[in-house]
Design a protein that fits this description.
216 residues; mainly alpha
Amino acid sequence: MRGGRKAAHPAPPEAAAGTPQKLYAEIKAKIAAYLASWTPEPEKLRDPLLKSLAYGAVIVMTAIMQTTAFSRHTPFGATPDMMIFCVIVTAMFEGERGGTAAGIFAGFIIESLGGVSLSLLPLVYMFVGCFAGLVTRYVLTNSLPVFLVYVPCAAVVRAAVTLIYTSAVGKGYSLPRAFISAVAPEFGSTVIMCFLPALLTLGAARLFHHRKKKDA
């Protein structure tokens, strides 16, 4: 028909077929962008990974020293618990999460090396690390006087665990005898040897926190 309106032609089959493909590509791109937002960049993963390796190396080194040299040459005739101070110093620098992770790792390492046969140590170290991290973050400060406050508290916690273990498995051990022969010597040796694991852990912490301050 002349001068009339032209009839609309249907879309080509190629265009109709391309619409679902385009929609699929858009959905795929949105899903990929969403997943990428939850995936840390390699640069952001590098420092936490190196930090975990450094703390882990210190904990393993301390566990080896505790189960070899300091189990043979013991002050006061008792093996000091040096692992607990690795956990405390880690918690002072890395907070409750870092302290909790260090406590669990330290407990399993010292048990795997045959230092103790007490399965409560991972739980005890985990509690100590979490508590020290929370107190340092919200109540006290990260300083030497605060660490000196933690030292006797940690030794008391370890002595209580030893007393419970001795009373549970020791046959013929009275409470005064267990305190004199096991708890008191371990308390003294733990307090005396607190600075060696603390300095080792402090060295690992300073590698990262000093660089963070310098970069800022």
